[in-house]
């Protein structure tokens, strides 16, 4: 008997306030919740920009609430760093609302704190199986206002929280609709100080979100689900397509310029227009992939980051007092993207070529309209923004492929979103071919 296929797709998003100056209105927006105690979550690098302190003062002045700042979110959070933040939230609480100011690292840390100051148990009770127990939160969470300072993750609008489980050398996450921020405040002026490599790496994250959700298996090509089986990621669909396409067009006109401006040392305010376009691209891609899902490059990125060798990226030097090596998330995602999209081309040629046209609207990259076109466009962007030339450049070799395949294979939730059925051999092929791109 034929399995019936899906006819329904879903879409959800936080309320959104966007544009230069938007972060000066957070106090007003929190008045609606009658807040008396507010927790601001940030990391040391973002705290040094002064934005979290300014937002904390503004919230206190507008609401009369007591505002407590936690500024020790770890860049690329771990189970240990999230537990520290949760303990802070539990011991310093109760709070009526949380404001996250920072990149994906601070926003995800705030999501974990929000989950565990409102629900019983430990972090691992909620982490995705098989690493954790994948329990669903029983109680509603506090209002969470997410204020991104990077142009990348889209974490301000997604239901996920990513963390590195140190003992297992594995990146995984918590995913539940209740984790989605109540409100996203996207103020591009906060991103003007984003360093060049952070702009490059988090920009590759935007690009991969848009591309992976655009090429994700179409919602109606999946088996039908019962209402209780629906998950936030439902495959590409007419609404997520619109956001992904717009994000790619914005990247085409602003990504290289934003990184060049950060690298040039010119007055950051000169780059206001391209920073604003990048901020829109990040949020729009988040609104797309946060509903459609991501697939092969993100599945491979988890073990690439989790099994890091000795690589230490520029501009992330202050990320951690213990000086641990890292492959930043967006960089990790991009390192296999050209080869992943070469593999998936046959499953959806029209979409791969349409994406290549959106990213390279003037045909500056010369490659024929076939499986090589999108990989060539991606490699050209990676080279121009200063991403390392493949897995070998961040320390991996042929001998690491089996372990990387094992780590990527564990991300079945993501692999199921790929436009074609994936095997372990497919993943090994993508990883082997990604040692060097140009
Ligand atoms: N929840 C999601 O939906 C989602 C999606 C993708 C990635 N992620 C996760 O997000 C994390 C990566 O987040 P990210 O790429 O936004 O970077 P980040 O939050 O890790 O920040 C990177 C570095 O930039 C600094 N920084 C941030 N904004 C700055 C600014 N305006 N000026 C100066 N310095 C600034 C930070 O202090 C840090 O050193 C990873 O852990 C990744 O797995 C989450
Ligand atoms: Fe990502």
Task: Give a topology summary.
Blueprint: E1 15-18, H1 26-31, E2 37-41, H2 44-47, H3 51-63, E3 66-70, H4 79-92, E4 97-102, H5 104-118, H6 123-126, E5 144-148, E6 160-165, E7 170-175, E8 183-186, H7 196-215, H8 238-264, H9 272-292, H10 296-306, H11 329-334, H12 337-344, H13 349-359, H14 373-385, H15 401-409, H16 412-415, H17 424-433
Parallel strand pairs: 1-8, 2-3, 2-4, 4-5, 5-8
Antiparallel strand pairs: 6-7
Helix pairs in contact: 4-5, 7-8, 7-9, 8-9, 10-15, 12-14, 13-14, 15-17
Describe the protein's architecture and organization:
This protein is of the alpha/beta class and 438 residues long. The chain folds into 2 domains: 165 residues, Rossmann fold (3-Layer(aba) Sandwich); 242 residues, Up-down Bundle (Dehydroquinate synthase-like, alpha domain). The protein has 17 helices and 8 strands. The chain has a 6-stranded parallel sheet with strand order 1-8-5-4-2-3, sandwiched between helices. Strands 6-7 form a two-stranded antiparallel sheet. The model has no long low-confidence stretch (mean pLDDT 95). Nicotinamide-adenine-dinucleotide binds next to α2, α5, β6, α7 and α11.
Structural class: alpha/beta
Number of helices: 17
Low-confidence stretches: none
Oligomer: single chain
Pfam families: ADH_Fe_C, Fe-ADH
EC number: 1.1.99.24
Catalytic activity: 4-hydroxybutanoate + 2-oxoglutarate = (R)-2-hydroxyglutarate + succinate semialdehyde; (S)-3-hydroxybutanoate + 2-oxoglutarate = (R)-2-hydroxyglutarate + acetoacetate
Domain Alcohol dehydrogenase iron-type/glycerol dehydrogenase GldA: 16-188
